[in-house]
UniProtKB/TrEMBL annotation:
Organism of derivation: Camelus dromedarius
Coiled coil start-end: none
Name assigned to this protein: Glycolipid transfer protein domain-containing protein 2
Superkingdom as given in the UniProt entry: Eukaryota
InterPro entries per the UniProt record, alphabetical: GLTP_sf, Glycolipid_transfer_prot_dom
Domain Glycolipid transfer protein positions: 7-153
GO molecular function: ceramide 1-phosphate binding; ceramide 1-phosphate transfer activity
GO biological process: negative regulation of interleukin-1 beta production
Similarity annotation: Belongs to the GLTP family.
Assigned GO CC terms: cytosol; membrane
Length: 192
């Protein structure tokens, strides 16, 4: 966030790059999600660093530049706003999944069930039936909570790994909530 309360796109994308780097070691289960996120980050970075870069410095400047496409719901005329919305939804899933893995109780639902539930909350409403079914199958193959904690924080004790994931989830939640407010104020939540 800049001092005016707007999302700086270069910083938002840098945060996404870190999140993707964090998720990659979690294994093939995250491979599709991380490759999708990486592609979206790369597409938005092309706008941030492209010939129209002055219009892609923040969420507000991007929305102002793409307003004609947003108003007509023409996704070809608002590529940055659409990509931002898709990344925003994925951020919510990542935040919920990490939070649930960090705070899950012994004997409670396994990590796959918790991340599947997070998917159902954050992403499934926006996906077609076939994608939802494939995601459901992928979550069945999720590693257990202790393995996810080990992959996320190699060499750390379980309590330390849980605390680190909880902190990461808290940071993601803060970014998500701030971005959610800005997207809602600008009428972007129903763009896709």
């Amino acid at each position: 966030m800049n001092p005016e309360g707007d999302v700086e796109l270069s910083q938002y994308l840098a945060g996404w790059r870190e999140l993707v780097r964090f998720l990659i070691p979690l294994g093939s289960i995250y491979a599709f999600a991380t490759s999708e996120a990486f592609a979206k980050v790369t597409a938005l970075e092309a706008l941030v660093h492209g010939p129209e870069a002055a219009h892609y410095t923040s969420l507000a400047t991007m929305v102002a530049w793409e307003q004609p496409g947003i108003a007509s719901r023409d996704s070809a005329r608002c590529p940055g706003s659409l990509t931002m919305l898709l990344l925003h939804r994925a951020l919510r899933w990542s935040q919920l999944c990490l939070h649930r893995v960090a705070t899950g109780t012994l004997g409670g639902p396994d990590a796959g069930a918790q991340c599947s539930d997070a998917y159902g909350t954050a992403l499934a409403p926006h996906h077609p039936w076939l994608v939802r079914q494939a995601a459901h199958l992928a979550f069945l193959a999720f590693p257990g909570r202790s393995r996810l904690l080990e992959l996320a924080c190699p060499g750390a004790r379980e309590a330390e790994a849980r605390a680190a994931l909880a902190r990461a989830a808290g940071t993601l939640e803060d970014v998500y909530n701030r971005t959610q407010t800005l997207l809602a104020e600008r009428g972007l939540l129903e763009l896709a």
